[in-house]
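Title: Prediction job returns without error message
Component: structure pipeline
Severity: low
Priority: P3
Assignee: unassigned

Description:
Job completed but the reporter wants confirmation the result is attached to the right record. Sequence as submitted:
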Amino acid sequence: MPEVIYQKTVSSREVRLVLRRIADFFDATVTVHSGDRDGHVKGSNPRSLHRHHRAADFHVRGVTDKAVFRTLRQQPAAFFDATRGYEVIYHGPFTATGGPHMHIGEFPQGGGYVTFKLEGLTPGSGGEYDPEHVSLRGTKPIVPQSRRTVPARPGQLWINESVGRGGVNRADDVRRIQHVLNRAASRLAAAWGGHLSFELLREDGFAGTRTIAAIELFQRLVFGRGAADGRVDPRGLTLRALNEATRGPVSTVQPRIKLQHRGAPPSAPGRRRTASDNGVLLVRDSEGFRSDPYEDTSGHCTVGYGHLLHRGKCTPADKGVSRAEAEALLRRDLVAAESAVNELVKVPLNQNRFDALVSFTFNLGRQNLAESTLLRELNAGHYDKVPSELARWIHSNGKVVDGLVRRRKKEGELFNRAD
């Protein structure tokens, strides 16, 4: 969870808002180690905005100061209010102000610009802010609130510029998309009986990681994985679908979902899901119960319902289990397979499809799923190819195993079965 940790007081609301946007953008913790000052710090400018309680020095955890500076300079409209003026300073390793860090300040007057400066990046440059010595200093205009285009129909959603990954991300456009995503999610969740898990967005006009992820989720649900680029364009299909999701019948915006799920409510990618009783039964029947330790088809010591005791042959020290103990071990072992399917599959799944993939992953492991053609086809939206891909995994030590043939057939049948 991104957050801003204030080790020092920062009174400026605008500076705090910018820091919040930086944390959301990088999905990381921002630590503020210097803020309001009532006195002069050695090496700093006597007219420093710190002394006006309008500045903060900070680091972004896991991100270099250089990368933060470059991002702010390339996308100023994503972080700053167009009605105000700011300065951004990248203090390097040779700074005269107490160690390398990032600085943001808000000017008391003026607006529509950000002044970017470098200081202390090379020996002898400490304390130097003059543009003749710092190549990246300059005034960079913020994208203004320009003229609005007229909507095609009264009440229809419209945006002037692209929103999302790689977009222009004007604050007013972003707010519109955030608002309509929240509305669309509520309607789609209601249409699918509450099976859609979606955390409502803050409508703050900032295209951070959560907003982009919400755009991708909507695109996956409506168009399939291949069309999920995390961006909404003024004349694009995603904008049209959002309008339909909030104004027209919900069924008009989910043709792929209806086709692929046969009317069953899909799960949203990222939602934590577990195997159903039917899924557990499939694994139990496929593995079979053995109370005493035995060696599986790969020669590893196993017990109960396929619980791996250790790699290699069994030893006299390996102990057996009861059915109740085997059931508990199975439920525990399934967690890893469930997590793998939840994390690696990027398209919606009904419960039967999820259960079939959990059985497959429990048998073959996360890495085989992650590197499989099956997963690539599935994440591309090719649901119909999954059963045939499952059927390829029937070998052990180079030989076809009848038990694996039967298991893959059951998994394929379950994958194709409607909830």
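Comment from assignee: result matches the submitted record. Confidence is low (pLDDT under 50) at residues 130-154, 249-271.
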